[in-house]
Design brief:
With about 325 residues, the chain is an alpha/beta fold. The chain contains eleven helices and nine strands. Helix 8 links the parallel strand 6 and strand 7. The longest helix is centred in the middle third of the chain and has 26 residues.
């Protein structure tokens, strides 16, 4: 599969080692053997959960660097060694094959697969394949073959289910701090329930229910709030849509009152802008929250999700 994305070069990522998050120590070398509960997370949504639940008791690092597209992550030798030293690994099986393999080969006692903590569904597009008429690739990842969409963190309700499972796993793995993990989990779930309420109220009365995006990452969000996600391209999010696909989307935009084509922060906006120009539509960012960078519309999961809500309200004509 020839997917062209904006990635940090592998040599740079390897030199950086495990990416430390904002709330964690900037010394990413100190992944294991600290006096805290050392957790290695696969990418931002998992690391955020570990931070929120682990609190002061956890030392959390992420395998995916800020600004690096997580699907194509390769694990360095240094990262494999650091995984061996960790107390726990938190990942989402099916999203990052290299992480699945690395975690499976380590002797970590506590391996937490978020995919087992909620129900993953088939949204007809696989994990990161895309609807798009012409130009479909014949290659598929494991997640495509199993028809499971891994983007569960974009649904606050499912994300809360995962949080509860992670909290229980932390309590079992580090019983000395179980009470604090339980308290932190309850606080996080309360915030996620509030976010769900914001989305329900903010999107219940809109002029249209259809939105265009170049990455089919928002199936759970669309399903939760009664929306329809229409992905533009084939498996390559930077490829231009075919002429037939553009005409099809132009007609759909007119029929359904679509005003905006959404693109992401970690891949090129070329596809979205091509369609927007040809179909006379606007463009805006709908962040799949696979990583936080300086260009993200917010500093953490909740801020970016609130920004996503505002973008959807504007594009869908919320009343």
């Amino acid at each position: 599969m020839n997917v062209r994305r904006r990635l940090i070069p592998a040599a740079v990522a390897s030199a950086l080692g495990l990416g430390a998050l904002t709330a964690c120590s900037s010394d990413s070398a100190a992944t294991g053997n600290t006096d805290k509960f050392d957790v290695v997370a696969s990418f931002y949504p998992m690391a955020f959960l570990a931070q929120q639940i682990g609190g002061d008791h956890a030392n959390v690092t992420s395998l995916t660097e800020p600004g690096q597209e997580p699907h194509d992550l390769e694990i360095s030798t240094k990262q494999r060694a650091q995984l061996e030293e960790a107390d726990a690994a938190l990942y989402l099986k099916g999203l990052q094959p290299a992480v699945d393999e690395a975690v499976g080969q380590t002797g970590i006692k506590t391996k937490i697969d978020a995919a087992t903590l909620t129900h993953l569904e088939d949204h007809g597009t696989g994990g990161h394949s895309h609807e798009g008429g012409e130009g479909h690739s014949e290659e598929h990842s494991d997640e495509d073959e199993h028809g499971r969409d891994p983007h569960v963190w974009l649904d606050p309700v499912k994300y809360a289910e995962i949080a509860q499972g992670v909290g229980k796993a932390f309590e079992k793995a580090d019983p000395d701090h179980a009470a604090d993990y339980k308290k932190n989990t309850e606080a996080l779930v309360t915030k996620l329930n509030g976010l769900n309420g914001d989305f329900e109220n903010g999107l219940k009365d809109t002029r249209t229910k259809v939105f265009f995006t170049n990455h089919a990452a928002f199936g759970y969000l669309a399903e939760r709030y009664g929306l329809t996600q229409e992905a533009i391209s084939g498996v390559d999010p930077e490829s231009e849509p075919s002429g037939a696909r553009v005409r099809e989307l132009q007609q759909e935009a007119k029929a359904d009152g679509v005003t905006t084509v959404f693109y992401e922060t970690l891949v090129s906006d070329k596809t979205a802008k091509t369609l927007a120009r040809d179909a006379n539509l606007k463009t805006d960012v709908l962040d799949p929250l696979e990583g936080i960078t300086d260009t993200s519309r917010g500093d953490d999961y909740f801020q970016v999700m609130e920004s996503n809500l505002k973008a959807l309200q504007t594009a869908l004509g919320a009343k």
